[in-house]
Design brief:
alpha+beta, 96 residues, Alpha-Beta Plaits, 31% helix, globular, two-stranded antiparallel ribbon, 4-stranded antiparallel beta sheet
Length: 96
């Protein structure tokens, strides 16, 4: 897998914004098959930053109902990437 296939999208939530400002941590949705070494190299390659730590979480899809029909959202994987204190977060995440 290349770096663009591993990193799917940045997660912009209230929690991820607080982590980005306080602890220099960025949250991403990543490929479910990717491991932390692949995520670390992909972030360093794409954003030209130094990564200190990667934490991965498997997120289960929620069960949703529409009337009498029931469905399930897809399962996905979340990554919290801690950057070096001298590196700043990428520009596209700053303005969001």
């Amino acid at each position: 897998m290349n770096a663009n296939q591993i990193i799917r999208r940045p997660l912009v939530t209230e929690k991820s914004t607080l982590l980005r400002e306080g602890a220099n941590v960025i949250a991403f949705e990543v490929d479910p098959k990717a491991n932390s070494i692949q995520v670390k190299s992909a972030v360093e390659e794409l954003f030209k930053v130094r990564v200190l730590d990667v934490r991965l979480f498997n997120v289960r899809g929620k069960i949703r109902r529409m009337g009498r029909y029931e469905g399930k959202r897809r399962d996905w994987r979340k990554a919290y990437v801690r950057l070096h204190k001298d590196d700043k977060t990428p520009d596209f995440i700053e303005g969001v």
